[in-house]
Amino acid sequence: MRLAVNLGYWGRGTTGEDMVAIAVAADGLGYDSVWVAEAYGSDSPSMLAWIGARTEHIGLGSAVMQIPARTPAMTAMTATTIDTMSGGRFRLGLGVSGPQVSEGWHGVPFARPLGRTREYVEIVRAAVRRDTVSFEGRHFTLPLPGGAGKALRLASRPVRSEIPVYLAAVGPKNLELTGEIADGWLAIFFSPEHAPELLATIEAGRRAGGRADAEHPMAGFDVVASTPVVLVDDVAEAADHVRDYCALYIGGMGSKEQNFYNQLARRMGFADEADQIQELYLAGRVRDAAAAVPLEFIDETSLLGSPRRIATRLQRYEDAGVTTLAVSVGGGMTRDQAVATLGVLAQVRAQAPRSG
After folding, report:
1. Could you tell me if 151 and 133 are in contact, meaning their C-beta atoms sit under 8 angstroms apart?
2. Which of 48, 50, 230, 333 is deepest in the core (most CB within 10 A)?
3. What is the set of domains in the chain, with CATH numbers?
4. Model confidence over 55-75: pLDDT tens digits?
5. What angle (nearest 5°) sits at the alpha carbon of residue 351, between those of residues 346 and 354?
């Protein structure tokens, strides 16, 4: 299991300069990759380009680039540019976002997200390969019929003809699609105790898509779990650093009828709590919503406590099938605190006994 860092996006006092400094530190500590998010503030490719210019070895991952925000061709152009300028370090994480952002911010209908994702990935891969792109689907048609457009191919020559594609997936159908068409999964609120069913769904997708080795169906597939880490000895106090993050997603990311993270919490056995968090958050009672997030949920999906406690809990992720643990060092930490946390975690990991 490799260590990575998920920087998220600007907010809660974190600036772009902070994110770059943390990424530079992670590069020096030998972290495998750095992942950057976007919602409707800072964008991920600009940050990754900046980070790529300041680092030497660390992989550069988008977690995610939003599908409704860019055409497939634009995403291919961006991906190959960053990949080429960084010497082949880019990893393309994609996600459909949610209806509020897709329709409210980008003006793109959210309906049929699975079909849109399938077509989008197919076009991106064709463009990265420098195929002449001609596509006729339900969601995308290239070139547009009856006009002056013609089928084109990427004018620049990237360093790789294939760039790894990751999908951010939460629901069962999206997980199966991820296994079928992607090279990796970007997981959020990953609970090792609830992982077998999720990974079985991805495995089924890999078999359906002809991507699974008969004996080792998950071989070569990267399971990236984004996991908050808080090095505070008292677990309950550590959890308080993560509460508002959990409440935002469970309570506020989406409408009452369509919130994928709320549904995930329900599937994990926190149905009543998820209802309460959402009700409070949508009523504007954000602090109360954060207070309502159960400690058990936070502890299942985070690394909390002393270095010794975290050392004993790291193995849970590897045993559950995680191949890249992308730790999040937000939670109101300063830049120096975040860098120090990464250093301690790298040391803990280096000293931990390996299974097998």
Report:
1. yes
2. 48
3. 2-228+306-351 (3.20.20.30), 243-301 (no CATH)
4. 999 999 999 999 999 999 999
5. 105
Cα-based torsion angle of the residue sequence 205, 207, 212, 216 in order, rounded to the nearest 10 degrees: 100
Share the mean pLDDT of the chain.
Answer: 95
Secondary structure letter of residue 104 according to DSSP: H
CA angle centred on 17, ends 15 and 20, rounded to 5°: 115
C-alpha span between 331 and 213 (Å, rounded): 40
Quick count: other Cβ atoms within 10 Å of Cβ 182? 27
Residue 82: CB atoms within 10 A of its CB come to 24
Residue 2's SS3 state is strand
Whole-model pTM: value is 0.95
State the Cα–Cα distance between residues 253 and 278, nearest whole angstrom: 9
Cα distances from 183 to residues 94, 224, 291, in angstroms, run 11, 11, 37
Averaged pLDDT, 84-109:
96
What's the DSSP call for residue 144? P
Helical packing angle, 307-320 and 195-208, nearest 10°: 30
Task: Give the whole-angstrom CA distance, residue 122 versus residue 106.
Answer: 22
- Render pLDDT for 276-319 as a digit per residue (tens, 0 to 9): 999 999 999 999 999 999 999 999 999 999 999 999 999 999 99
Task: Note the pLDDT of residue 257.
Answer: 82
Q: Does the pLDDT of residue 356 top 50, yes or no?
A: no
Q: Is 151 exposed, middle or buried (0-12, 13-18, 19+ CB in 10 A)?
A: exposed
The per-residue DSSP string of 316-337 comes to HHHHHT-SEEEEE--TT--HHH
* 3-class SS letters over 197-259: HHHHHHHHHHHHCCCCCCCCCCCCCEEEEEEEEECCCCHHHHHHCCHHHHHHHHHHCCCCCCC
Per the CB < 8 A criterion, the answer to whether 200 and 210 are in contact is no
Please calculate the CA angle 101-104-110 and round it to the nearest 5 degrees: 65
